[in-house]
Amino acid sequence: MNKRLFLSPPHMSGREQHYIAQAFESNYIAPLGPFVDRFEAAIRDYTDTPSALATVNATAALHLALRVLGIGAGDVVLASSFTFIGSVAAILYQNAVPFFIDSDHQSWNLDPTLLEEAIAKAPKKPKALILTHLYGQCADLEPIMATCKHHGIVLIEDAAESLGATYKGAHSGTFGDLGVYSFNGNKILSTSGGGMLVGHDKALIDKARFYATQAKEATPHYEHIEYGYNYRLSNILAAIGVAQMEVIEERVAQCRQIFAWYQEELGGTEEITFMPELPQTQGNRWLTTLTFERTDPLHVMHHLESHNIESRPLWKPMHAQPLFKDALHVSRGVSDDLFARGLCLPSGTQMQRDDVSRVCTHLKEALS
Ligand SMILES: *Cc1c(COP(=O)(O)O)cnc(C)c1O
């Protein structure tokens, strides 16, 4: 049997264990320490943002974002519908009301015209928008930002999948009031689990750091006026993060190369359309994703699986989830259609040209 090809396995640089050993020597086996500081600095430098807070994961970072932006019970929070649950779960943690917005075909991301429609239809003025950059491709930020600004809606970018993606030269995650990255095991960089909250307003990030550290007041004893969370990243995992950040540009180039190979081998097939990339943006191509004209993606998935190749349907839109069956949403059926026809292909950055060819050979066998 050929070796298994996973969707997006972790890819260590080789420096991780060296840094972990240093963390052990310093005995900072704690959710703070020099590697946490270095990891945050590496993200600030790379994304060109003044403030960053390392967290246990991106879901927690999004929770902190809503909390520090003052989103609470009954507040309406707009969100991309075509995304992963971790993007929007924190809306429920805050007892706020999610309002899901469908994608457009040009970007597979939030449709800016539907954003206007959602604001007009909302039962009350929405306070925030959580905007996902899906599969590492940028949403159309400019019109979305203009609409948010016009209506006084704060923007939180869910850049969990899009570290390294740029929109007009600037990093995804740095346009909004706050932005979030993930270092889960399946993302372009992995610390096994981890997240980062970034922003231009240092006071907001400081407040998030306070909530992420159990909201301890600055007294010698433990004094609490507010409640917080235990959301800070371990120094050991941050050591992995520091080593991973040393290869971020390489990883983005590798993901884009894998996408280019797939495109070369499958681009001529009428049956297949790849996820687009908006002009003046460069995605990180975290996962190579495509849709089929007629073939059932589950049929392709099962066929690939029989050859020890992992693939997966696209995200099921939030407005179509049983959890959100009664939730507010605006849709033109785009993400439902993409979900019905789409597939994610193995895109791990260790993949060689031969591996991509192997996937393509079996994928072609499965086409109707
Ligand atoms: C992975 C992911 C998250 C959650 O990230 P964690 O670090 O696993 O909590 C949130 N949003 C999107 C779009 C994701 O892909």
Question: How is this structure best summarized?
Answer:
The chain is an alpha/beta fold and 368 residues long. The chain contains twelve helices and 15 strands.
What does this structure look like?
- The protein has 368 residues and is α/β, with parallel strands linked by helices.
- The protein has 2 domains: 16-102 and 109-245, Aspartate Aminotransferase, domain 2; 248-367, Aspartate Aminotransferase, domain 1 (Alpha-Beta Complex), CATH 3.90.1150.10.
- Helices cover 37% and strands 16% of the residues.
- The protein contains 12 helices and 15 strands.
- α3 (58-68) packs across α7.
- The relative contact order is 0.18.
- Residues 57-59, 83-84, 86-87, 132, 158, 160-161, 182, 184, 195 line the site of pyridoxal-5'-phosphate.
Descriptors:
Aspartate Aminotransferase, domain 2; binds pyridoxal-5'-phosphate; 368 residues; Aspartate Aminotransferase, domain 1; eight-stranded mixed β-sheet; 12 helices; single chain; four-stranded antiparallel β-sheet; alpha/beta; 2 domains; 15 strands
Detail the topology: elements first, then pairings:
Layout: H1 16-26, H2 34-47, E1 51-55, H3 58-68, E2 76-80, H4 89-93, E3 97-101, H5 112-121, E4 128-132, H6 141-151, E5 154-158, E6 166-167, E7 170-171, E8 178-182, E9 195-199, H7 202-212, H8 235-245, H9 248-266, E10 272-274, E11 281-282, E12 288-292, H10 297-306, E13 312-313, E14 328-330, H11 334-341, E15 342-345, H12 353-366
Parallel strand pairs: 2-3, 2-4, 3-14, 4-5, 5-8
Antiparallel strand pairs: 1-9, 6-7, 6-11, 8-9, 10-12, 12-15, 13-15
Helix pairs in contact: 1-8, 2-8, 3-7, 5-6, 9-12, 10-12
The chain binds pyridoxal-5'-phosphate (PLP).
